[in-house]
């Protein structure tokens, strides 16, 4: 691993100042920035409108810590899962999810996860570090290229629902989104980006103060503290009542409804009182609900509820005019579905 500074950690202004000190024209910073972010080059030698001397100087003093896709798996349903190698040898996973109307990139924000949600495979990995903004950005670029190469269609949506808790890598996630949405980067609409959290009340409020244009999703799975405490220990410090107040604040600041992600499990949250608790929750916060098919992680504790229970949830929510959609999982045969990302193929970690 190089001890040179990654040039993508510098702002345009910092690159410009550096070049001026070298005696270069300030506009060269714009050219370098375009090569790095819009064109996504991986080698200074590819910056063909720079002089050979400047390229050599950059090569000697900086590095471009680009990701690489070590392994790509394709599901029977068209889903693609990438094992993404980072500059220090660590591995994360990202997923391309195709439908008839959109192509979505599911992106990781941390190597592993520091939370311990019982139903999630990623939670069984220790959190090794946060991803840098460029590593998040590169995942999107890789899936964008795959969408164009394999489907002949553009990437349309991005969800931060891969490995890690995005709000525990707050600054880097926001910096990556800024680049993804900037005309200097990928120029994607922030309205096509969704950041998902397990429910960090304080951070939801902090994010609301930024008045972002992207969307927020909450991985809820129960609106009863006694249930949520058992399956998501983060609830012990962020009880349902606090989440409700944080989401009210989010809506007041952004006027954007939150999407609740909700898996219904047999004998865990499939009773009438569970349904009523979610109905009461939704009466207090402007939301829509995705009822998500569960993807087993081999321990047998969590099992998909009978469809009758899912249907009962849907009918109860629709009765109070809450949009409730049943989401079928994609990529289960390659462990690419929601909650399954855990480098199960054990793509070998390199020593940094």
Task: Provide a descriptive summary of the structure in words.
It is a single chain. Residues 339-352 have low confidence and may be disordered. This protein has helices at residues 12-22, 28-38, 52-61, 133-151, 170-181, 201-209, 225-231, 240-254, 272-284, 307-318, and strands spanning 5-6, 62-63, 68-74, 80-85, 91-98, 103-106, 110-111, 129-130, 157-160, 193-197, 215-219, 258-263, 287-292, 324-327. It has 2 domains: 5-63, DNA polymerase, domain 1 (Orthogonal Bundle), CATH 1.10.150.530; 68-334, TIM Barrel (Alpha-Beta Barrel), CATH 3.20.20.70. The protein has a 10-stranded mixed β-sheet with strand order 3-4-5-6-9-10-11-12-13-14. A two-stranded parallel ribbon has the order 1-2. A two-stranded antiparallel sheet has the order 7-8. The longest helix has 19 residues, at 133-151. 34% of the residues lie in helices and 18% in strands. It is α/β, with parallel strands linked by helices and 352 residues long.
Distinctive features:
352 residues; alpha/beta; DNA polymerase, domain 1; TIM Barrel; two-stranded parallel ribbon; 10 helices; 14 strands; 34% helix; disordered C terminus
* CATH architecture annotation of the largest domain: Alpha-Beta Barrel
Query: Poorly predicted ranges (pLDDT <50, ≥5 residues)?
Result: 339-352
Query: What composes the largest sheet?
Result: 10 strands, mixed
At the fourth CATH level, what is the homologous superfamily of the largest domain?
A: Aldolase class I
| Percent of residues in helices | 25-40%
The proportion of residues in beta strands is 15-25%
Q: Sketch the topology as an H/E string, one letter per element.
A: EHHHEEEEEEEHEHEHEHHEHEHE
What is the first-to-last residue Cα distance?
6 Å
What number of structural domains do the residues give?
A: 2
């Amino acid at each position: 691993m190089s001890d040179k500074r990654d040039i993508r950690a510098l702002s345009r202004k910092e690159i410009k100042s550096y070049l001026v000190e070298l005696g270069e024209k300030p506009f060269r910073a714009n050219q370098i920035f375009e090569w790095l972010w819009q064109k996504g080059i991986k080698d200074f030698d590819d910056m063909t409108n720079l002089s050979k001397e400047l390229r050599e100087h950059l090569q000697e003093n900086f590095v471009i810590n680009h990701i690489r896709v070590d392994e790509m798996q394709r599901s029977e349903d068209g889903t693609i899962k990438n094992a993404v190698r980072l500059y220090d040898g660590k591995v994360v996973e990202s997923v391309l999810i195709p439908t008839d109307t959109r192509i979505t990139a599911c992106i990781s924000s941390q190597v592993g996860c520091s939370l311990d949600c019982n139903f999630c495979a990623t939670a069984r990995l220790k959190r090794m570090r946060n991803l840098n903004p460029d590593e998040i950005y590169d995942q999107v670029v890789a899936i964008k290229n795959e969408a164009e190469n394999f489907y002949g269609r553009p990437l349309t949506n991005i969800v931060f629902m891969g490995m890690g808790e995005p709000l525990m890598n707050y600054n880097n996630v926001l910096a990556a989104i800024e680049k993804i949405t900037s005309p200097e980067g990928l120029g994607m609409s922030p309205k096509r980006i969704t950041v998902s959290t397990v429910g960090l009340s304080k951070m939801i409020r902090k994010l609301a103060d930024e008045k972002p244009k992207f969307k927020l999703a909450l991985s809820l799975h129960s609106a009863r503290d006694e249930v949520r405490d058992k399956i998501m220990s983060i609830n012990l410090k962020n009880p349902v009542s606090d989440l409700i107040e944080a989401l009210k604040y989010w809506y007041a600041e952004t006027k954007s409804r939150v999407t609740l992600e909700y898996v219904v499990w047999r004998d865990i949250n499939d009773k009438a009182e569970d349904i009523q608790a979610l109905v009461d929750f939704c009466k207090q916060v402007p939301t829509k609900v995705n009822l998500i098919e569960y993807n087993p992680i081999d321990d047998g504790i969590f099992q998909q509820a009978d469809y009758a229970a899912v249907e009962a949830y849907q009918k109860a929510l629709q009765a109070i005019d809450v949009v409730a959609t049943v989401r079928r999982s994609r990529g289960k045969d390659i462990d690419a579905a929601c909650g399954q990302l855990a480098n199960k193929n054990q793509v070998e970690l390199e020593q940094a």
